[in-house]
Amino acid sequence: xxxxxxxxxxxxxxxxxxxxxxxxxxxxxxxxxxxxxxxxxxxxxxxxxxxxxxxxxxxxxxxxxxxxxxxxxxxxxxxxxxxxxxxxxxxxxxxxxxxxxxxxxxxxxxxxxxxxxxxxxxxxxxxxxxxxxxxxxxxxxxxxxxxxxxxxxxxxxxxxxxxxxxxxxxxxxxxxxxxxxxxxxxxxxxxxxxxxxxxxxxxxxxxxxxxxxxxxxxxxxxxxxxxxxxxxxxxxxxxxxxxxxxxxxxxxxxxxxxxxxxxxxxxxxxxxxxxxxxxxxxxxxxxxxxxxxxxxxxxxxxxxxxxxxxxxxxxxxxxxxxxxxxxxxxxxxxxxxxxxxxxxxxxxxxxxxxxxxxxxxxxxx
Length: 365
Description:
Its EC number is 6.3.3.1. It catalyses: 2-formamido-N(1)-(5-O-phospho-beta-D-ribosyl)acetamidine + ATP = 5-amino-1-(5-phospho-beta-D-ribosyl)imidazole + ADP + phosphate + H(+). The structure is a single chain. This protein has 365 residues and is of the alpha+beta class. It contains 11 helices and 13 strands. It folds into 2 domains: 4-166, CATH 3.30.1330.10; 170-361, Phosphoribosyl-aminoimidazole Synthetase, Chain A, domain 2 (Alpha-Beta Complex). The protein has a 7-stranded mixed beta sheet with strand order 8-10-7-11-9-13-12. Strand 4, helix 5 and strand 5 form a beta-alpha-beta unit. The protein is globular, with a radius of gyration of 21 Å.
């Protein structure tokens, strides 16, 4: 008998095959706390362990990957987008000091191509495994007529927990604290509308190599996956140095100054010294193609600074050394000071948060 739904362009059998292809990778993220298996109406986790917390606070975040997916579609490479999604979500949660527990994902597509969907979800699952987060559920929705057959978008959400006494944020920040920078892996998942415009205006092909990037195609370079900070930062917070950490900022949409300003209290300011790091080659090349100065894209791209950590000055060198030893190059960006009367050259707060004041000074190394 003909499937009436299939006549409208929705292939439920392809969806079932996609689930079979991704099942092993998703199952590998599950620990003893995950209840039930893949395919249920809801993902579940036993959180009896929260009784051990004095005052457990649940933290949640949701995000997507943005127009970076257009480059994945252009070169038909879909196995890294999942890591981007995980990084954008769980690395927001760790900012408040929370440990992510579980995650769900959502993929909307014009046509379910099982192998493509499996690649995306496998990337999500492998990234979840890398940072100890269970992937407990997800949804793939086929939207024929709304999206093209090769089009898709991805989104996800996660939940974590932090004890109220260990909550990070502006309330902990003091004059004299040091701001550390943690290196990014590249563009991560922000500013790709500008990236794609630069590439289009330059008449370049994502599938082809360019002189500046050697033997990797332009698309492969631009799909460099987002660095995952959660595992490293949770390890730091659980160590003897954890109490030295006062606040964190994930450098995503809005750029460097605005994101750091969000996690500082009113009344303080910080000069972020550009001379303390060299932006990655990908930023320098893209800015050159677009005829932009690096300073003009500081509110769009992370320029090699993926996460900022505000710490007690007395422990700053130890924290930086510990993070570098855990695998993420970390350096000193600046020092928290009392805010001056004239804040006209600073970015003050962002995303509806009236926070501290931040400006970038000097020239890049």
